[in-house]
């Protein structure tokens, strides 16, 4: 029997046991691992097993299990302390919001050209130091020309990326403000950049400011996109609201990691006729089989666009999982983009505009590669103890109401 099975295995995958005999079990294991249906079934079984108490814990005497349950009650108390900590952080952010807003308003005035900075306001020491270092390098012969030039048809040298020639600008000294400030910052910011389409850029050239409002009841934040008058839509402000929760789930306390976005709401964009970049018209030929006539039908379908950001998918209620995997991914991206605007792009817009934030992000990534330990998400590996019950009295009211 074993010989029959062994001869059915392709030669390249045959395993060898001691004495040169075919290792049938190794062959079968390789075949099973190469079968996607079998691997999918195994993965499903592993999902069912994940979260169950380990044999090691089950084998312990009841007196030790009681102590473990006591430790879990202490852990729940720790989660509640953490919830109160994050509530204080949220309150602190709201308290300082007015100070930030005053500075962001100054930034907006400069960007749109309503305020011209004074000479004393334009000196920035780090930039001046960089310029001095560059001048010293040039004096020390740091900039060396290769002596080899590529000529065009007229005999003039063609500048390349390594030629050191400064790029030309379409703007001059009469240009107001900082053109395409927010568009450029968004293009330098992932994951926002991945949502930008070419047809969005002409619209986003009219984006004058992105502002942030922190809300307490309900907990969350509002992003406001301020546009100058344009030929695409009549709205002057587009809003995106994010709702958050900050409480420990009594049924699953271990999942708490701080404030969590639960849903988002967009707004209606009043597109002008023929200017809606979120839809496209497709044409399809239809032939009448009986009459042999052909007609062309048209219909509008959704087009990829950043402005779909203002029509987010509905979040499931009561922590139910989205059955549609594509919708779940879209919802996750929406939460990620909203967080990026709030925590990174709005506070550090000028650094994303200049690209310096990208360098800092790369530096952080490289520091992580050099040996930092990464905590893997082990929520799914937590052992669910069926005997565990929260301490009498439940959870503190002041925490559950935050």
What does this structure look like?
This protein is of the alpha+beta class and 402 residues long. It is 40% helix and 12% strand. It is built from 12 helices and 6 strands. A hairpin with a 4-residue loop joins β1 (207-215) and β2. The N and C termini lie far apart (68 Å).
Describe what is shown at a glance.
By secondary structure, the protein is of the alpha+beta class. It has 12 helices and 6 strands.
Decide which structural class fits the backbone: alpha+beta
Low-confidence stretches: 1-22, 143-151, 371-384, 390-402
Largest sheet: 4 strands, antiparallel
Mean pLDDT, to the nearest integer, reads 77
Percent of residues in beta strands: 5-15%
Order of helices and strands, N to C? HHHHHHHHEEEEEEHHHH
Fraction of residues in helix: 25-40%
Topology:
Blueprint: H1 2-7, H2 24-34, H3 36-49, H4 55-58, H5 62-111, H6 125-139, H7 181-187, H8 198-204, E1 207-215, E2 220-227, E3 237-245, E4 260-265, E5 279-287, E6 294-302, H9 325-345, H10 349-354, H11 356-369, H12 397-400
Antiparallel strand pairs: 1-2, 2-3, 3-4, 5-6
């Amino acid at each position: 029997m074993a010989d029959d099975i062994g001869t059915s295995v392709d030669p390249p995958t045959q395993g060898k046991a001691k004495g040169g005999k075919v290792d049938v079990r190794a062959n079968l294991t390789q075949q099973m691992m190469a079968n996607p249906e079998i691997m999918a079934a195994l993965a499903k079984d592993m999902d069912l097993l994940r979260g169950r108490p380990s044999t090691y814990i089950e084998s312990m005497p009841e007196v030790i299990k009681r102590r473990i349950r006591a430790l879990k009650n202490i852990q729940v108390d720790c989660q509640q302390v953490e919830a109160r900590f994050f509530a204080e952080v949220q309150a602190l952010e709201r308290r300082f919001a007015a100070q930030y807003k005053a500075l962001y308003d100054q930034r907006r005035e400069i960007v749109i050209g309503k305020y011209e900075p004074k000479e004393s306001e334009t000196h920035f020491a780090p930039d001046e130091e960089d310029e001095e270092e560059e001048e010293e390098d040039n004096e020390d012969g740091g900039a060396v020309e290769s002596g080899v030039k590529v000529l065009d048809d007229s005999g003039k040298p063609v500048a390349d990326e390594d030629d050191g020639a400064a790029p030309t600008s379409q703007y001059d000294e009469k240009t107001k403000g900082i053109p395409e400030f927010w568009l450029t910052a968004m293009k330098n910011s992932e994951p926002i950049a991945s949502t930008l389409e070419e047809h969005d850029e002409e619209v986003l050239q009219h984006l004058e400011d992105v502002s942030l409002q922190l809300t307490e009841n309900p907990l969350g934040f509002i992003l406001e996109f301020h546009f100058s008058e344009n030929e695409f839509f009549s709205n002057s402000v587009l809003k995106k609201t994010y709702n958050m929760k900050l409480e420990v789930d009594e049924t699953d306390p271990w999942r708490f990691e701080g404030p969590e976005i639960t849903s988002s709401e967009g707004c209606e964009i009043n597109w002008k006729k023929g200017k809606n970049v979120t839809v496209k018209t497709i044409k399809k030929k239809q032939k009448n089989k009986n009459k042999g006539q052909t007609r062309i039908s048209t219909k509008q379908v959704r087009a990829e666009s950043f402005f779909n950001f203002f029509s987010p998918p509905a979040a499931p209620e009561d922590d139910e999982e989205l059955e549609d995997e594509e919708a779940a991914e879209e919802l996750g991206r929406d939460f990620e983009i909203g967080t990026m605007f709030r925590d990174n792009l709005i506070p550090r817009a000028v650094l994303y505009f200049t690209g310096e934030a990208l360098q800092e992000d790369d530096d952080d990534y490289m520091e992580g590669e050099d040996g930092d330990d990464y905590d893997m998400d082990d929520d799914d590996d937590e052992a669910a103890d069926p005997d565990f019950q929260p301490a009498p009295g439940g959870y503190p009211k002041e925490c559950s109401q935050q």
